[in-house]
Design a protein that fits this description.
By secondary structure, the chain is mainly α. It is built from 17 helices and three strands. The chain has helices at 25-34, 51-58, 63-78, 83-93, 97-111, 116-121, 129-141, 144-201, 207-220, 226-242, 245-257, 261-283, 287-296, 301-315, 320-327, 332-344, 347-403, and strands at residues 3-9, 15-21, 38-45. The protein has a three-stranded antiparallel β-sheet with strand order 2-1-3, with helices on one face.
Length: 404
């Protein structure tokens, strides 16, 4: 259990400092108050290496964890369970260590009179602005259970979309890794054996075989270590440049223009924007705040800048669709449906339809991309292995010709 140090005052008003072990700050406050002390401040004492804290810090809260928490808390709230009791139940049954600790801190804040949304805002690494804004809108409108259900659906849809894209990328990554591994193994261990045989027989090696031998010598020599260093340096440079606004904007523009993948990135961003914006609008979040939040969660700086331009247009009394059309980033169909939603006053419904359409488009694009990548990867793998085999047997054919 953690150790806490309390700055207290006794019954005569004299300052007192006590240190003891408790389950939480709330328990420490209650125990010291029951003993007649006035609690001024309580701080957790930081000791040596704490494996439990380290494991919590290394644990990530996934979208699936948040979706499950939102769905279950919505059920409890809808059943009339108080927020304090509902959070207590969710804390006790939470299996994710980091989320469990976070919920315990949220529960402590709520018990002390802080609103649920303000308590969540203290933990931005777990609950982002989108989550907190929708919860606040639900609290204000008295429909917290409904908003939590929508949040769960939103998170589940986001997780499903991300999993589809990850599954599409898993196959080519695995096959490429295997292909490179086989190529390196054959170059390092097999080609040198054949090279020794060819040298003993004499004669000049074919150009293709000599190229493979040169690659083998490079991989087995000390200069090979410059290759990993170059790759690591390129990755570090990419991350450094991508961390700057201008660098990220440049790479995001490039990604949008990459054949096949650029269209997939655009459709994914449009689907995320529409689903997020529609969910915020339905929850009662003001349109300017909704656009600001969706801009932060767009995932692509080009898309984000287009949303910011739409937000500026709305500030000046304009409409969203014309501002988005000027950016030439969003597809025509999405702009037209958003325009119809603005004209009919049913923007949230139209946004949800746009999200459904483009999520289906992403799903179909992922399937098509996977179907295309499978034979391409097999061709690459076969070409690499077959090329080495051909390169090793070419000298044999040459020697046989000389014998004849």
């Amino acid at each position: 259990m953690p150790k806490f140090k309390g700055s207290l005052k006794d019954s005569q008003g004299k300052p007192v400092s006590l240190t003891a072990t408790f389950e939480s700050v709330r328990e420490a406050r209650e125990v010291w108050r029951n003993k007649g002390f006035v609690v001024v401040d309580i701080k957790e004492v930081q000791g040596g290496f704490d494996f439990e804290k380290f494991s919590v810090a290394m644990t990530n809260v996934s979208v699936k964890d948040l979706a499950l928490f939102s769905r279950q808390l919505a059920t409890l709230v809808n059943a009339g369970v108080s927020m304090v009791r509902g959070l207590g139940v969710m804390t006790d049954q939470c299996s994710n260590a980091k989320l469990k600790v976070t919920l315990q801190q949220v529960l402590n804040d709520v018990q002390e009179g802080t609103s649920f949304s303000d308590s969540l805002r203290k933990h931005p690494k777990v609950f982002d602005r989108l989550y907190c804004a929708m919860v606040q809108a639900g609290e204000t409108g008295g429909v917290l259970d409904d908003v939590l259900s929508r949040l769960a659906t939103l998170l589940e849809d986001a997780a499903r979309l991300a999993n589809q894209i990850k599954s599409a990328m898993t196959y080519p990554v695995v096959v490429t890794t295997i292909a490179v591994g086989i190529f390196l193994a054959m170059c390092i261990f097999i080609i040198p054996v054949f090279d020794g045989v060819f040298k003993s027989l004499g004669g000049e090696l074919p150009a293709f075989t000599q190229m493979l031998v040169n690659i083998s010598n490079f991989l087995r020599g000390p200069t090979f270590f410059t290759l990993p260093a170059t790759v690591i340096g390129a990755v570090v440079a990419f991350k450094y440049i991508n961390a700057t606004p201008s660098g990220k904007l440049f790479f995001d523009k490039v990604f949008l223009k990459v054949p096949l993948f650029g269209e997939l990135i655009q459709k994914t961003a449009v689907a995320r924007f529409s689903r997020t914006f529609g969910s915020l609008s339905r929850a009662g979040v003001p349109i300017l705040s909704s656009l600001e939040i969706t801009s932060e969660t767009a995932g692509n700086l080009v898309i984000s800048n287009a949303i910011d331009q739409a937000r500026e247009a709305v500030k000046e009394g304009g409409q969203i669709a014309p501002a988005m059309e000027k950016t030439e980033v969003f597809p025509v169909m999405a702009i037209q449906m958003i325009s119809i939603g603005e004209e009919t006053g049913e923007l949230d419904k139209m946004l949800m339809k746009v999200a459904d359409f483009y999520e289906n488009e992403v799903e179909e694009a992922v399937k098509a991309l996977t179907s295309l990548m499978e034979p391409l990867m097999i061709l690459v793998l076969g070409g690499m292995v077959g090329g080495i085999i051909v390169g090793m047997y070419l000298p044999i054919f040459s020697i046989m010709e000389q014998i004849k």
